[in-house]
Amino acid sequence: MALPLAHCPVPITVIETKEEARRIAMRLKRAGRLGIDTETRPSFTAGLRYEVSLLQIATEDECYLFRLNKIGLPKSLLHLLEDPSILKVGLSLRDDITALCRRTSFTPNSFVELQKLCGGYGIRELGLQKIYAILFAERMSKAQRMSNWEDAQLSPAQAHYAALDAWASLRIYNTLMSTPTPPPTQFALI
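Now predict its structure.
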């Protein structure tokens, strides 16, 4: 039996100017925890690598998609990524941070890697899709993963996919933090 498809239930806003990014970064500074992810245009040519195109940042109530291919990595976002008082939660963060630092060097602070956290809860899976399915019995579509993140406009499907990844990371973190550490066998049958 196939699991139901997961949906991002919060408003999604695409940010395409540095001024919008500055305003939203100030708003995000009030959040204690953020879900974070990035997307990069795929390359199908050996030796060709694109810069990170999109930075997704989610709170429990909203998600923002920053078009880095249009605005670069503004100081307002760098300050947010360096802020030690705000947790930034995601999966495979080393890759995301490396890609962001290729755009503009910064000192990452207060990042929480879900792959490491989930092990303490008996979850041995490393992929966001599988972790989400274990915890919430929903499947996340990856159909947009290899799409062109530098298109002039993001399609609704791209925006939803990108937002869901960041929002799901935060949802996983919040769920784990509100659950006592289970015995390792709790997740063995799933």
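The CA atoms of residues 39 and 54 lie 5 Å apart.
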